[in-house]
Design goal:
about 15% strand, alpha+beta, Flavocytochrome C3, Chain A, domain 1, Methane Monooxygenase Hydroxylase, Chain G, domain 1, five-stranded antiparallel beta sheet, 19 strands, about 650 residues, binds flavin-adenine dinucleotide, single chain, 18 helices
């Protein structure tokens, strides 16, 4: 296993530098995965065209990543290694990820940090100058590199600088405010895309020898999620409908520490980074009457003594405590709230409390400052300074949104949809089932199995973009050195453009009665209630029928104001929601067929007496890769068996 990636690289074909100049590659998406891939491919000498729907690659959703990026550098000397990172990731994913990919991910993780430091990414440093680390859930070491609460932003600035160097050299042509709406397949190979210029409304044909999809995840299918408002499934779904299998669509990550839903008119949820669980302690009142008193405002959290609080994660999972993986922490919060212990007006919130950390750090700082008999006020002052240095921007964000000061009163948090582990199926080379169509970053079904550990998405996106795809795509492109420029006047391009135009025309001419958001909210409601944190067969069957009916209603009654010949934000949303309405049905079908609980997929019929996920390794240790046949309900299942040779499959326990 440890040799596999090196051997593979040694054996695959290369393209000589002179020939790379004759080869074009399209990269759809310029977040961390696409941005890093585009910069690296251009640096190698390929002609790259990038596409994103924002006005700049700098605005990709990756910019929102707060907490950090994992790497097995073992800077802390706490026993980390490639094997441990690999092991933690496979275990974290509940033994539903591919062994070889995950090992490779761990193996290249250290290179990512070196690459980003060389680009000038300002990772946090310790006093002595070494890069600092913190811990994330599901692991017993500190391996998460971070730049305050803005890790994604700083990494993206690094990738964007690398892209800009190539834009300047003319090796990258950057098409911002462009949305890919169709893949063009010629003689069975991906040879281009149809993109809509979102500023002018024009449909454009772009050809290349290979197409890389780096379009991010589809968490917004739930309407409310922590994802950027524009995040969508369209690029992945379009290639799925052209022949790329879609794997494990039901594997969704619900993040335990988000600001709770506040009302019906909300369009977005806000994450409070998992890094906060390094120092925050999660609790609810032990007694129902105290929970009720807090809900109706007659008691404040501070009125409850230590004995009256239930630090339920520390109680249930003594060895990992507040740092259990996200799926475990989310379910535990739901369990407490469902039992009536929720602490906000809606009963759907738990506390994340920094008082103990403030006191602990305050005492330490007092001692460092030579103050051996500090007052309570001095301890609090010192402690808050440490917390501010670590999480200041997150605390500020919380206060702005909730109007409560988290230095003084515990934060209120609740799980929310955050990440999708499912996505387009790819092989070890990151190629989909359409030759020449590669998928990287959150858009592929990835290396995380049924649950992603925190700080692993940035690692995977950048591993794919900087260190995996640039090698593997060469193997494919080596056969194309004599092909020459791909023409865009072929019947395949014509047909693809015609079908996009027809769909857009249908939407703007529909003149129905309901807005796009009306449908998106309804879909989100079905998804959250019936395909969310706890699923069961009856609900999932109902969800499939309800989503289908909603989709039919959408095409009859959706109203898209404006026309298609210029900028039209409603039209953009409509095409994305139309795709979600198809994916939703496949999502529910996938969740229904998987008669087990694993990671983020929790079927209430399959749980232990203690309420933990009950896997069925005998029958479900496989990747479910779905083939489109014209109707999401009729999709055909292909099973990729998962074989664990290097790791012992165990019951996942964090107790
Ligand atoms: C609030 C938040 C915090 C997070 N924090 C962390 C963290 O601390 N650590 C961690 O590891 N992970 C974190 N994650 C997850 C991580 O940020 C994402 O998984 C990752 O950034 C995805 O990168 P990507 O490049 O695959 O996709 P994205 O960054 O989503 O980029 C997608 C790109 O595709 C483009 N695009 C999409 N569709 C089309 C189309 N049809 N046509 C043209 N362009 C298109 C977009 O314009 C964009 O450029 C966080 C996620 C959220 C929501």
């Amino acid at each position: 296993m440890a040799e596999k990636w090196t051997n593979h690289k040694n054996e695959i074909n290369l393209v000589n530098p002179a020939n790379k100049r004759n080869i074009d590659v399209i990269v759809v998406g310029t977040g961390l995965a696409g941005g890093s891939a585009a910069a690296t491919l251009a640096e190698l000498g390929y002609n790259v065209k990038t596409f994103c729907y924002q006005d700049s690659p700098r605005r990709a959703h990756s910019i929102a990543a707060q907490g950090g990026i994992n790497a097995s550098k073992n800077y802390q000397g706490d026993g980390d290694s490639d094997y441990r990172l690999f092991h933690d990731t496979i275990k974290g994913g509940d033994y539903r990820a591919r062994e070889a990919n995950t090992y490779r991910l761990a193996e290249v993780s250290g290179n990512i940090i070196d690459q980003c430091v060389a680009q000038g990414v300002p990772f946090a440093r310790e006093y002595g100058g070494y890069l600092d680390n913190r811990s994330f859930g599901g692991v017993l070491v500190s391996r998460t590199f971070y730049a305050k609460g803005q890790t994604g932003q700083q990494l993206l600035l690094g990738a964007y600088s690398a892209m800009n160097r190539q834009i300047n050299r003319g090796k990258i042509q950057s098409f911002n405010r462009h949305e890919m709406l169709e893949l063009v397949v010629v003689d069975g190979k991906a040879r281009g895309i149809i993109a809509r210029n979102l500023a002018t409304g024009e449909l454009e044909r772009h050809a290349a020898h290979a197409v890389v999809i780096a379009s991010g995840g589809y968490g917004n299918i739930f309407f409310l999620s922590t994802n950027a408002m524009g995040s969508n499934v369209t690029a992945s779904w379009k290639i799925h409908k052209k022949g790329a299998y879609f794997a494990n669509p039901c594997y969704t990550q619900i993040h335990p520490t988000c600001i709770p839903v506040s009302g019906d008119f909300q369009s977005k949820l806000t994450l409070m980074s998992e890094s906060l669980r390094n120092d925050g302690r999660i609790w609810v009142p032990k007694k129902l009457e105290d929970a009720e008193a807090i809900r109706n405002g007659t008691k404040k959290p501070k009125d409850l003594s230590e004995e009256e609080r239930d630090y339920y994660l520390e109680r249930r999972y003594p060895s990992f405590g507040n740092l259990v993986p996200r799926d475990v922490a989310s379910r535990a919060a739901k369990e407490r709230c469902d039992a009536g212990f929720g602490v906000n007006r809606t009963g759907q919130a738990v506390f994340l409390d920094f008082a103990s950390a403030i006191e602990r750090y305050g005492k330490e700082q007092a001692s460092i400052h030579g103050n051996y008999n500090p007052t309570k006020e001095e301890i609090t002052k010192y402690g808050r300074e440490v917390i501010k240095a670590k999480y200041g921007n997150l605390f500020q964000m919380y206060e702005k949104i909730v109007d409560q000061n988290p230095y003084e009163t515990p934060m209120m948090i609740y799980p929310a949809v955050h990440y999708t582990m499912g996505g387009v199926w790819v092989d070890y080379n990151l190629e989909s089932t359409i030759p020449g169509c590669y998928v990287i970053g959150e858009a592929n079904f990835s290396d995380h199995g049924a649950n992603r550990l925190g700080a692993s998405a940035l690692m995977q996106g950048l591993a794919d973009g900087y260190f995996v795809l640039p090698y593997t795509i060469g193997d494919y492109l080596s056969k194309d050195i004599r092909t020459g420029t791909i023409p865009t006047d072929s019947k395949e391009f014509e047909e693809a453009e015609r079908s996009v135009r027809e769909t857009l025309e249908k939407l703007v001419n529909n003149k129905g009665k309901h807005s796009v958001d009306y449908y998106h909210k309804k879909l989100g409601h079905i998804m959250w209630e019936k395909c969310g944190m706890a699923r069961n067969a009856k609900d999932l069957k109902e969800a499939m029928d309800e989503i289908r009916a909603l989709r039919e209603d959408f095409w009859k009654n959706v109203k898209v104001p404006g026309d298609m010949d210029g900028m039209n934000a409603e039209l953009e949303k409509a095409t994305r929601v139309a795709d979600y309405l198809e994916l939703g049905e496949l999502f529910a079908k996938d969740a229904l067929h998987r008669n087990e609980s694993c990671g983020g997929h929790f079927r209430i019929e399959y749980q232990t007496e203690e309420g933990e996920a009950l896997r069925d390794d005998e029958n479900f240790m496989y990747v479910a890769a779905w083939e489109y046949t014209g109707d999401p309900r009729e999709s055909v299942l292909h099973k990729e068996d998962l074989n664990y040779e290097y790791i012992e499959v165990q019951t996942r326990s964090y107790k």
